[in-house]
Amino acid sequence: MRILHITCDYAPLSKGGGVERYIHQLALQQQQLGQQVEVAALRADYEAMPYPVYTPNLRQLLRLIHKAGCLHLHGPRTPYTAMAGLFAILLRTPFLYTAHCFYESSTRMGRSKKYLWDQLVERLLFAMARRVIVLSDYWQAYLAVQRLPVRHSEVLPNGIDMQALAATPDTTIVLEGAPAILSVSRLDPIKRIEDIIRALAEPGMEQAHLHVVGQGPDAARLTEIAAQHQLQHRVTFHGFQTDATLATMAHAADIFVLASATEGMPTTVLEMLARKLPVVASDIPGHQTLAAALGWPKLYPLGDTAALAATLLATCAVPVTTDVHTQLARQFDWRPIATRMQPLYEAA
Predict the structure, then answer these.
(1) How far apart, in Å, are the Cα atoms of 283 and each of 290, 299, 302, 309?
(2) Does residue 167 contact residue 192 with C-beta atoms inside 8 Å?
(3) What CATH class has 162-331?
(4) Per-residue pLDDT tens for 110-133?
(5) Would you say residue 95 has pLDDT above 80?
(6) Number of neighbours of residue 266 by Cβ within 10 angstroms
(7) What CATH number was assigned to the domain covering residues 2-159+333-347?
(8) Which of 184, 335, 341, 344 is nearest to 250 (CA)?
(9) Angle between the 58-67 and 79-91 helix axes, to the nearest 10 degrees?
C-alpha cells in the first residue's frame, strides 16, 4: 500500500515537534510492515530521512495524492493539510485524519476565527475522512462538544520506541542544579515555560537550575522574564538538541517538567518516563490521560507556581517504577499501535 502523510512542517530529526515525531515513528513502523511510505509538507528537512519527503508544488501535490492508496492527514486547523484534504475529496482518494490537538486562542477574535474555521473546513474534513483518529477519549468528547461530525472515529494514543529509549547513553554529562530541572518543548506561550522560571524563586528552590531544550518564537520573552526575576543565572537555554544529546541530558537531570496550558498527548512525558526520569506536569486533560494510564499522578494546578515548586521538590526523588515501564510498553509502544492502525488503512 502507498501511504502519503500530509503535514504543514516536517523536520523530525532537526527540530523535533510532537506531530512531526509522531509521523516519523509511525512511518518507520509502517515501512517495517511492508508499506510504501511518503511524506508531503509545505516546509520540510530532507536530510537523512529513510523514506521520500517532498515539498511539492500544486501540480506535484495533486499527482502525489492521485497516486496514493491512502492519505493520512495530520492537523487540525492547518491550511496546507486542509487543502490536501480537499484535493483528496475531489480526486476520490481515501484519507484518514489524526486530530492531534486543538489549541484555543486567548482572545475573543482568535476564538471566533477558530470557530469559523471549524465550521467551514474541519467539519468537512471530519465528515469525509474514512477514519478520524484521536489520541484519547478526551479529544473524542471534545469533538462531540464542538458538534463536529465524525463518521468513524478511533482512539489510538501517541507512541514511543521503548527499546530505543531504554538504552543507556554512551556518554555522560553533569547538569547544574539541585535539582537539575529539564524542560523540552517548543518555545511558545502555550507551553507556559515562564511558570517554571518563576517557580525557581519559591522557597526550597534556591539551588534549582532550569535547563530548557527547544526553539521557538517565545525565546526572547522568556529570557526577559528570567532577567526580571534575577534568575538568568539559573536558567539555561540549550536550543535544539539531537535525540542522542537529549538522552544524555535526561540521564543527568533530576526531574522533567511540562507546564503547558494545552497538550494533545505529549510524547516528551512518555519518553522521559521511559528513560526513568521523574516527570511533573500541569493538571490538564492531555496530562491527566497519561497520569491515569500509567499510575503516575504527579500533576499540579495549571499556573500555580508555588504548587509547581512543591511538586517538583516532592517528586525529584521518586523512582519511576517497573509498573510504570510495564504500562508504557503495553499501551504506548509504537509497534502494537502501528499494527492496530494498519487495518484502518486497508478498510479505507
Answers:
(1) 11, 5, 6, 14
(2) no
(3) alpha beta
(4) 889 998 998 999 999 999 999 999
(5) yes
(6) 23
(7) 3.40.50.2000
(8) 184
(9) 50
59: amino acid identity, one letter: R
Write down the domain spans for the chain.
2-159+333-347, 162-331
CA 86 – CA 80 distance, rounded (Å): 10
Nearest of 17, 20, 46 to residue 213 by alpha carbon: 17
> Mapped to the 3 state alphabet, what secondary structure does 175-244 carry?
CCCCCEEEEECCCCHHHCHHHHHHHCCCCCCCCCEEEEECCCCCHHHHHHHHHHCCCHHHEEEEECCCHH
Secondary structure letter of residue 147 according to DSSP: T
pLDDT for 15 beyond 80: no
Q: What is the pTM of this model?
A: 0.90
The SS3 of residue 141 is: helix
Q: 72: which strand partners? A: 5, 96
CB 257, CB 178: distance < 8 Å: no
Q: Give me 69's grid cell.
A: 492508496
- Return the C-alpha cell found at 212: 530548557
